[in-house]
Amino acid sequence: MAVEVHYVVVRNGEEKMTFATKKEADAYDKMLDLADSLGEWLQQAPLTLDDEQREGLSFFLAENKDVLGQILRGAAPVETPKKSAKVKAEKPVPTTKEGSASEKQAA
């Protein structure tokens, strides 16, 4: 019998993603915090976005914060955002229907 350790990111009592390492889980949790902050900020934008659009956009911006930072600093981005940019070694296993903005668009 093997023992496996999984790290689960939980938001508002709902499981979001499961990871193999604490480092990956912490990074995802931090990205979700950034997406929440961006979503609140986007509510103040002088344009009309429905909740799903705002959530998708804030999630996309949070996923690609490094590229966004380069653009805001006036530097050309080193790479363009990719659908799999957040996945390096192991893909986390989504535990709910909620996924990345790119996954929502594909559905």
UniProtKB/TrEMBL annotation:
<protein>
    <recommendedName>
        <fullName>DNA damage-inducible protein YebG</fullName>
    </recommendedName>
</protein>
<dbReference type="Pfam" id="PF07130">
    <property type="entry name" value="YebG"/>
</dbReference>
<dbReference type="InterPro" id="IPR009813">
    <property type="entry name" value="Uncharacterised_YebG"/>
</dbReference>
<feature type="region of interest" description="Disordered">
    <location>
        <begin position="79"/>
        <end position="107"/>
    </location>
</feature>
<feature type="compositionally biased region" description="Polar residues">
    <location>
        <begin position="97"/>
        <end position="107"/>
    </location>
</feature>
<dbReference type="InterPro" id="IPR038627">
    <property type="entry name" value="YebG-like_sf"/>
</dbReference>
